[in-house]
Amino acid sequence: MYIMVFITVSSEEDAERIANELVDSKLAACVNIIPGIKSIFIWKGKKEVSGEHLLIAKTRRSHFKKLKDMVKKLHNYDTPEIISITISEGSQDYLDWIGRTV
Question: Model-level pTM?
Answer without folding.
Answer: 0.94
